[in-house]
Every structure is written in C-alpha cells, then in structure tokens.
Specification:
The complex is a heterodimer of chains A (547) and B (371).
Chain A lengths: L1 H13 L10 H5 L4 H29 L10 H36 L7 H9 L1 H10 L18 H4 L2 H30 L12 H32 L13 H18 L2 H15 L6 H14 L15 H29 L8 H24 L1 H7 L3 H31 L5 H28 L13 H31 L32 E5 L3 E6 L5
Antiparallel strand pairs in A: 1-2
Chain B lengths: L1 H10 L3 H5 L10 H34 L15 H30 L6 E8 L2 E6 L4 E5 L5 H4 L17 E4 L4 E7 L4 E5 L4 E5 L5 E5 L5 E7 L11 E7 L1 H17 L10 H15 L1 H4 L17 H4 L2 H10 L16 H13 L11 H7 L5
Parallel strand pairs in B: 1-5, 4-10
Antiparallel strand pairs in B: 1-2, 2-3, 5-8, 6-7, 6-9, 9-10
Helix pairs in contact in B: 3-4, 7-11, 11-12
The chains are: A mainly alpha (547), B alpha+beta (371).
Membrane topology (chain A): Multi-pass membrane protein
Family (chain A): Belongs to the heme-copper respiratory oxidase family.
EC number (chain A): 7.1.1.9
C-alpha cells in the first residue's frame, strides 16, 4: 500500500486542474498520456498494415499467372522481404504495444504507464524506422531482397538498402525493448490494491510474458544484424565461409530470436481472446490458472525449438530429433488453451457481436495453423515442406487469422471504451465474414501449392501451379478491399457512432468497464481499492479518481 | 480450372483427387513413399482432431446461445477434465513421434552408397561432378527468356527444364555431397523425397535410391538472390545399362572436347561461342542488350570497362568484383576458352566495336600461369 501511495503521489499532486488536455500537434509530439500514445501506436500500426498490404498485393499481382508480368525478380524479392519486415515489426508488434498502452493501466488500476516520457520516445522511434524502410526502395540497388530472415551470406551481397534495413531493425528493436520495460514495470509495480498477480486479467499476463520475451530476444536480433553489418563493411567474416566464418551460425542466432518472436505475436492474441470469449459467453474463463501456466510454458518452450526452422541445413539426426520432440511439445499447452476457450463457451449464454465473431474465427483458423504446424514439426515430413508455399500457408494462418484477427477483435471490443462511441455492428460483421471468406480463399490453396512442389519466394512458376495461384491472388485482392470497410467503419463511427454506455457488453467484468465511457483522459489518478476475482473480474471497487 | 478443382475437392476427398496437384507428387523412392504415407497419417489425425474439437465448439455455438434462451452455468474449472485434455494430446504426439523417428534415422543413414556425386550450387545454376568417373558439368535453366517475358509460348516443363540433367542409375544408392559457391541454395526434388541446403564452406550429404526410370523435376528451395526462381533441378534415372552407356558417351565426349589452350581463335568463332557463354552466365544481371539494370547491375554496352580497360575487364571476369559481391569470380567456373570468348563478345557486341580479340592464352597469362 505504501509503495503504491508514494508512486501515485506525484500524479495526485499535479492532477488538480492545472494539467489541461493538451491540444494541437504538441499533444501528439510530446505525448506522455498512455491513451494518446496507445492511439499513436494503433494509427501507426494501421498505416504500416496498409503499406505491408500493398506490398502483399504487388506480390499476388505478379503471381496471378505464370510469366513475368509486372516486376523484375529483384524487385519482387524486395517486395517479399519488406512485406514480411513491415508486417512483423511495423504492424503486428506495435499494434499489440498500442493496445497494451491503452488498456493495461485501465485494467489494473494504474494512473498511466510507469515511464511516461520513455513511452513517448519508444513510440516516436518507430516512424523514422519505417521511413528508413520506405526510402530504401529508392536507393541504388533497391530495398533489402534477402527475405525477412535476411539470411547471410545473401544479405552480405545486397546494396545499401540492406544497411538501411539493419538500422531500421536496430531502431525498432530499441523501441520495442523500451515499450516492454514499460509494460513490465507497470504491471509489477502499479497494480491497484487487491489486483494480485494471480487475479490479473489474461491480457495483462500475456503482455507481461510477451514483454519478457521481447527483452530476451530483440538484442539477439540486433546482434546478428550487426554482425551482418560488420561483415558487409568492416572486414569481419562471421558468416563468410571463405574467411573461416559459418553461414549456418546466422540461422541459429536469427531463429533463437525468430521463434520466440512467433510467440511475441501470438501470446497477446491469446490474452485478448481470453477476455472476449468469456465476455460474450457470459461465463468466467475456464481454467484461468492453467491458462497462466500454459502461456508461461509456451514462452519457455519457445526458446528450445528454434532449429525446427533449419531441418534442411543438414543437422545430425540427434539434433533433428531433439528439436522435433521439443516442437511437438508446444502443441500440448497450445491445445490446453484452445480447450479452455471451448470450455468457456460450453454451457455459456453466447451472443455474437463482431468481437466474438473475430475471436471464434481466431480460434478455428489459428488451430488450422497449429495443426499444420504439428505436421511441419515432424522433421521427416518437413524435408518436403520446408521453404514451400505450405509454410507460407501455415504462418499466415497463425499470423493473419491469428494475430490480425485478434487485433480486429480487440479494436472492436474496446472501441466504445476508447472513443465513447459504438462502431457499426452491421459493417463490423460484414468485415468479419468478408475477411473470413477471402482469407481462406487466399491461403488455403497455398497448402496444396506447397505439397505439389512450389517453393516460396519465387516470382514465376510452372503452369501446374496456375489455378491455385490465380485463386490466391483473387482472394488477396478481395481481402485487401475488405480492410477498407474496416477503416471506413472506424473513421465514421469515431465521429458519428451511437454514444456508448460505460459497459456496452453485458458480460464484461474487468476494471476498464467500471469507469466512464470514453475513458477519462487521466484515469485512476488515485488508486481504487479492489475486490478482484480470477481473470481480473471486479467484484467491488472503492475510491479511485479520474479527470 | 480452379473452379473444377474446388468442386472436386468439395464432392469427394478421394485419393484420386488428392493426387491431382493437391498433394505430394507420386514418390519414386522408398523414403519419399514413407514421407508420403507419414504425411497422410498426420493429415488424418490432425483432420480428425479438428473435426472433433470444433464439432464440440459448434455444438456449443448452436445450443448454448443467448438467442436460444440458454442460461450460462458458472463453472470455471475441472481438474479431471484438464488433466485428461493435457494427457491425450501428449499420447497422440508420442504416437506421431514414433514412426517419425524411425524415418528420420533412415533418411540420415547415407552409408554404403554405390555412387557419389558432388553437387555445387551457384547463382543461379547447379554443377554436378561424378567424383569417381571424371564427368562434370554445369546444369542451366533451359527455358528461354522470351518465354518468361511472355513473348514466346511456354512448354509443359516451363521453368522446370535444364540443358543437362543429372543422370543417375536406378536401383543404386546414390549419395550427393552438397556445397555452394556463393550463397546458400537448396537442392530439392520432391519425388525423390530429398531436400538439402547447399551451404558455402560446408559439405552436407543426402542419399536416394530411385526405383524406376524416369525424369524427376525440382527447384532450388532456398532464396538465393535474383534468379532463385530460375534454377531448376532435373534428375534423369536410367536403368543401370543405359546409365553406363550414357557415362561412357560423356567420358568420350569430354576427352574429344579437350581444347588446345594455345589455339588461336578467329574473332567470328570467339563471338559465336562468347554469345553462348554470355547467355548462360551473364545475361541474368547484365541483360541480353548489355544495358544491365541501373542501380543494381552495371551496363556493359558502352562502359569504360568493356570498351577501354582490357586488363581490368579480364581481371573482373576472372576474379570477381571487390565492390559488388554479386559479380562472381568466373575464373573458378569457366575454362580459359570460355572466358576469352565471353570477353571478346562483350567487347564487340551491341555498340561496343573495339575489334579486340582476347585469346585463351591471354587468360592463362592473366591467371599467372595457373589454370
């Protein structure tokens, strides 16, 4: 109690009137309010989602039919590379950080994020990084074209676009590490009295564990791209076999980052879904404790499976077996989560507003990606599927229908709390069914393409692959079009939506729904006293001031 | 076509449909067959899990909905159920891991090979070296650029055809030793059930034993730069007697083709040969018109290097560029005659009319006497 009191004291002192809501450009440039910064993150992530999406459509346009139509192979490789980097580092990760910024303090009863100024800095690092990636298309030699994995020694061959990419990765890495420090300190130090760790909402748990993962692996990525940089310019030979280096070392280091990164993009999604499913089932989350343990074990296991991305590099049989068994094990806690969600829905009283639709879509399609993941984990089979369109299908099921669908679910779910207005339910549902249909038209055929023998990252293909590629391209353009519906709905509802109630969802029971809508600019300047149940359910709230 | 496939998929999940370009291609080795079978097993298990789990979920969605007047029950844990749904997946995984482990050990046992071939990946072609038989050759994409750029019609094996396939005997355990010259490539022929990265500085091995004669096609599977999509692999499996005949013919041809390094070639002959070498090796970056790609690959047409600086020109072709790693050291890949021919070609093609003739002995001299 005393620690929290002293932590809150400054906020309390300054809160008496002389901190009016800033306006104009300085409100955003010098933003220290977690809600403003959260919004900045979300807008940034959405614009990167559009940018990365346009690159994806450039790829699909070229692959619409065999032969080279629009781009030279070199430019095509730049598109695939930047599409991956931008979606991972520009869209998905910042979107989750934005949501954490917006919702964590509201969920745990904190006045703001722990380090408000660092929060500003971690956001404002992102636009320059994105700019570096954008202008890299215009430099001699073009943007990086070695795939988002930037495998050496191919990445040592590229022009200066690769250097810009490396710097962009450095900057984005610093940004996400600072964002993570903020999340960890906020959760560990700023919970309101009564909000104990094992009562905390799942989204807080997921953000906490994700933040630890980010701090553990982003430096590893920064290290490995720096090694590429020194190989390129300063005469080192980390990855140059001719100088005694080891090209496979790059892959080991990269995937030591890369596999936890997969969960950095998946765990927050699990957290979000663990709020939405109980809310719209009007029933508490099934197996809260096992959810916390499952999330933690996934995080720990994620450090032990990296080499399953490298089964074709020629590892010894023992290494293949170890990484295969470890990878298969991840299916157990992941399965527990899926069963828990279904256990939550079982005997509930469900209704199907847009967030619930996206959450259910998430569970189904994420599981498809999980099951193809089990197939890929079998090293013997992976020999056939590694680096084919099957893998492309697999990770888009996990990242688009997984991470992206959960983000849509989250934005629809919390939109009323953020803006004070309701979105259009009709267009929200339309957005869901449209996305669901075209997502599957785009990505399901890719399983067949991969099995039939189409490698990934190629700009042209044999005619036997034409049908499914055409189908995927049509699907991709329709899917892309559907996201404009989302944008229009959000934009219109922001101004003209029906005013929202403080608790627009009947079954919602976490702390953010206990305060006014839209959330006051300075919420919980004085910590409330809480009686909390599992998954952040608020049984009673005493005190707590906002303005 | 696409519609017909989808209809087929919807109407019946029969093995015949599965074979029609939606599944792994027909296996021709024991390993590939085992992979095929294991994948089918996994497909049935995971498919079954999906149907079962989501059957339960959709049942709940149908019955336990507010609009159907269902009241929520407020249970939120059940230790027995949670233990059961942790243990059952674990057992299923063990059941999958068992056959997978046996297959992996089999894939890795390359001992006792009867024929060893060294495979080297280059940007963007494959080199095959029959280590014990003195036969070695480069295998290039045979599809013409005009077909890729939609000028000419595309044949059945568009992008999956090469000038010289890898020829192997059937019923023989063939071991490949894989490495690469520049970046990482991956040698993949789906019907053989073989995919192995070719990594510079390392030698990795894989093996296969083809059961029946035929032509089997694959592609490079690891992104290796600009023309990653244009370096196919073709394996021709011949009955042992046919294979021996092929090998003898190759050996004879190799002996006959041994060139006199001191022969003095006339310009026209060098130009004709140089154009061939250029088309196989240089055209991907410097382009057929010699204009290169601005910003990425320098033009040769009218460049100072290709019109004035002859020693510099020979040096960069032989030893590669120090500034741009994409320019390989061709001295390791091409013969003196080929290098002399291609340099002569570059100095006299397009708008370059230098009249320079570079002879094989010039290249030999530039190598410092070392071949």
């Amino acid at each position: 109690m005393t620690a929290i009191d002293s932590a809150l004291q400054p906020a309390h002192d300054t809160a008496h009137g002389h901190h009016a809501k800033p306006s104009g450009i300085t409100r955003w440039l010098f933003a220290t309010n977690h809600k403003d910064i959260g919004s900045l993150y979300l807008w940034f992530a959405f614009s990167m989602f559009i940018f990365g999406g346009v690159l994806a459509l450039c790829i699909r346009a070229e692959l619409f039919r065999p032969g080279l139509q629009f781009w030279q192979p070199e430019l095509f490789n730049q598109f695939t590379t930047l599409h991956g980097l931008i979606m991972v580092f520009g869209a998905i990760m910042p979107a989750f950080t934005g949501l954490a910024n917006w919702m964590l303090p509201l969920m745990i009863g904190a006045p703001d994020m722990a380090f408000a100024r660092m929060n500003n800095w971690s956001f404002w690092l992102l636009p320059p990084a994105a700019l570096l990636l954008l202008i890299s298309f215009a430099v001699p030699g073009g943007a990086a074209a070695a795939g988002w994995t930037l495998y050496a020694p191919l990445s040592t061959q590229m022009g200066m676009g690769m250097d810009l990419t490396i710097f962009a990765i450095h900057i984005m890495g610093v940004s996400s590490i600072m964002g993570s420090i903020n999340i960890i300190v906020t959760i560990l130090n700023l919970r309101a009295p009564g909000m104990t760790m094992m009562k905390m909402p799942m989204f807080a748990w997921a953000s906490l564990i994700t933040a630890y993962l980010i701090i553990a692996v982003m430096p590893v990525l920064a290290g490995v791209v720096t090694m590429v940089l020194t190989d390129r310019h300063f005469g080192t030979h980390f990855f140059n076999a001719a100088g005694g280096g080891d090209p496979v070392l790059y892959q080991h280091i990269f995937w030591f980052f890369g596999h936890p990164e997969v969960y950095i993009m998946a765990l927050p999604a699990f957290g979000i879904v663990s709020h939405i499913i109980p809310t719209f089932s009007r029933k508490p989350l099934f197996g809260y404790t096992s959810m916390v343990y499952a999330t933690s074990s996934i995080a720990i296991l994620s450090f032990m499976v990296w080499a399953h991305h490298m089964f074709t590099t020629g590892m010894p049989a023992t290494a293949q077996l170890f990484f295969m068994y470890a990878t298969m094990l991840i299916a157990v806690p992941t399965g527990v989560k899926v069963f828990n969600w279904i256990g939550t829905m079982w005997q509930g009283s469900m209704s199907f507003e847009t967030p619930m639709l996206f959450a259910i879509g998430f569970i189904c399609l994420f599981t498809v990606g999980g099951l193809s993941g089990v197939t890929l984990s079998i090293a013997a089979i992976d020999i056939q599927l590694q680096d084919t369109y099957y893998v492309v299908a697999h990770f888009h099921y996990v990242l688009v229908a997984g991470a992206l669908f959960s983000l849509f679910a989250a934005v629809y779910y919390w939109f009323p709390k953020m803006t004070g207005r309701m979105y259009s339910e009709f267009w929200g549902k339309f957005h869901f069914w449209w996305s669901l249909l075209w997502f599957n038209v785009t990505f399901f055929p890719m399983h067949f393409l991969g099995l039939a023998g189409m490698p990934r990252r190629i700009p042209d293909y044999n005619m036997q692959f034409t049908d499914f590629n055409t189908m995927a391209s049509v699907g991709a353009f329709c899917f892309g079009l559907g996201q404009l519906i989302f944008f229009a709905n959000m934009l219109h509802s922001l101004r003209h939506g029906r005013p929202a109630a403080a608790k627009p969802w009947e079954g919602a029971d976490t702390l953010e729904w206990q305060i006014a809508t839209p959330a006051p600019y300075h919420s919980f300047v004085e910590a409330p006293d809480l009686e909390v149940g599992e998954n952040g359910r608020i049984d009673a709230m005493h005190g707590g001031k906002h303005h | 076509m696409a519609c017909r496939r989808v209809l087929l998929l919807l109407t019946g999940w029969s093995p015949a449909v599965l074979a029609a370009n939606v599944n792994l291609p027909p296996p021709v080795t024991g390993i590939a067959q085992d992979i095929y079978d294991l994948h089918m097993l996994l497909l049935y298990i995971t498919g079954g899990i999906f149907v079962l789990v989501f059957g339960v979920m959709f049942w709940a969605i149908l019955r336990h909905r507010k609009s159907a007047g269902h009241q929520a029950k407020h249970f939120h844990e059940n230790t027995t159920v949670e233990i059961i749904w942790t243990l059952i997946p674990l057992l299923i995984l063990v059941a999958m891991a068992w056959p997978a482990t046996r297959l992996i050990l089999q894939q890795k046992s390359s001992a006792g090979a009867e024929l060893t071939i060294k495979v080297t990946g280059y940007q963007w072609k494959w080199h095959y070296d029959y280590l014990d038989d003195g036969v070695a050759f480069m295998s290039h994409l045979a599809t013409p650029q005009s077909a890729i750029h939609q000028v000419a019609a595309r044949g059945e094996h568009y992008l999956l055809e090469v000038d010289q396939p890898l020829v192997v005997p059937t019923g023989t355990k063939v071991r490949l030793l894989l490495t690469a010259n520049d970046v990482i490539h991956a040698w993949w022929v789906p019907q053989l059930g073989v995919k192995q990265d070719a990594i510079p500085g390392f030698v990795r091995d894989v093996w296969f034993k083809v059961d029946r004669p035929g032509t089997y096609r694959g592609q490079c599977a690891e992104l290796c730069g600009k023309d990653h999509g244009f370096m196919p692999i073709v394996v021709e499996a011949k009955a042992p007697a046919d294979y021996q005949a092929w090998l003898a013919a190759r050996q004879k041809a190799a002996a006959a083709n041994l060139e006199d390094p001191n022969k003095v070639w006339p310009l026209a002959e060098l130009m004709a040969r140089g154009e061939k070498v250029y088309t196989q090796n240089c055209v991907a970056c410097h382009q057929a018109n010699g204009k290169g790609i601005p910003g990425a690959f320098p033009a040769l047409d009218g460049s100072a290097m290709a019109t004035k600086d002859k020693p510099g020109h020979i040096d960069i072709v032989l030893n590669g560029s120090k500034k741009n790693a994409a320019m390989a050291a061709w001295g390791k890949q091409l013969s003196d005659t080929d290098i002399a021919a291609v340099i002569t070609y570059e100095r006299n093609a397009w708008g370059n009319h230098t009249g320079d003739v570079v002879q094989p002995k010039d290249i030999k001299a530039a190598r410092g006497g070392k071949a």
